[in-house]
Amino acid sequence: MNQRLKQCPTCNSSLEIIEYHCPKCDTTIKGRFSIGDLASLSISQQEFVKVFVCNGGNIKEVEKALGISYPTVKNRLSEVSGVLCPQSRPGFEDFSTEILEEIEKGDISVDEAIEKLKKRS
Question: What's the rounded Cα separation, in Å, for the pair 68 and 64?
Fold first, then answer.
């Protein structure tokens, strides 16, 4: 996957795109362009989104394609949501992600997780 620079390699400031150029016809477009929401995802998050979309959002298929568990798929979805939709349901995603991680580690059962979620709602 083509990775665009997001930060200055010298000072770590955010970079902005100021020029697009077509090598075929030599057209140049200058201005200030954002990198876009999807480019703000890490490479691994972008790859996850690609697998998710290519599998029609079917979590079971994503599990098979990536060889990961249901809670891990949900965690990765939550991470991507946090980057793309930071304003949606503040706090709940973090809480549910923590619960999914506890299930995955074997610290709590699914029934215990359901109870925690009910109490939070």
Answer: 7
Give the chain's domain count: 1
The count of other CB atoms within 10 Å of the CB of residue 52 is 20
Q: What angle do CA 25, 31, 35 make, to 5 degrees?
A: 95
Structure tokens at 42: 């890490």
Read off the pLDDT of residues 14-53 as tens digits, 9 standing for 90 and up: 788 899 999 999 999 999 887 778 888 888 999 999 999 9
Q: Which range of residues forms the domain containing residue 73? A: 39-120
SS (H, E, C) 61-109: HHHHHHCCCHHHHHHHHHHHHHHHCCCCCCCHHHHHHHHHHHHHHCCCC
Q: Are 66 and 48 in contact (CB under 8 A)?
A: yes
